[in-house]
Amino acid sequence: MERGTASAGRPRILVVEDNDELRGLFVEALEEDGFAVLSAGDGAEALALIEREERCDALLLDDEMPRLRGVQLLSMLRARGIDLPAVICSGTLVLTPDERSKLRVTRALAKPVALPDLLSAVREAVRAQASS
After folding, report:
1. Which residues pair with 41 in a beta bridge?
2. Range of the structural domain that residue 11 is part of
3. Per-residue pLDDT tens over the stretch 64-110
4. Is 52 helix (H, G, I), strand (E, B) or coil?
5. What is the DSSP letter of 113?
């Protein structure tokens, strides 16, 4: 687990990505955009963070990861009543509108993703959490 610099009042995003370089790029971009950031290298590590009651306002996650895929993580969280909005970035995943709604995926982005699109999607997820 890596932690970004948390600051009171800043929305906190949990980045879940198994590619170290890409995870670092996402964390840096989000911090520069004003977010506090936690990160995990796979879904199992993210689940452990959330179970330890680490506060976060939204999830940014890959789907294709070892140990626990992004969609599996979301399904487990929803089954436990944890309803954080999520942005999924994937090179292969296609979700139907019904699946997106059920998993509370605010946006599904195709990799490679442009950072402005990623930041816009995360802001949208944070707004969704604030209005719920």
Report:
1. none
2. 2-130
3. 998 899 999 999 999 999 999 999 999 887 888 999 999 999 999 99
4. coil
5. -
How many other β-carbons are positioned within 10 Å of the β-carbon of residue 5? Answer: 8
- pLDDT digits 0-9 by tens, 11-54: 999 999 999 999 999 999 999 999 999 999 999 999 999 988 77
Q: How confident is the model at residue 55 (pLDDT cuts 50, 70, 90)?
A: confident
Q: Quote the Cα angle for 116-117-122, to 5°.
A: 100
Split into its structural domains, the chain has a count of: 1
CA angle 97, 38, 76 (to 5 degrees): 45
Tell me which DSSP letter residue 129 carries. H
CATH code of residue 38: 3.40.50.2300
Cα(69)–Cα(65) distance, rounded to whole angstroms? Answer: 5
Token pair 């090179």 in the structure block, residue? 91
d(CA 59, CA 89): 11
Give Cα 50 to chain centroid, integer Å.
Answer: 12
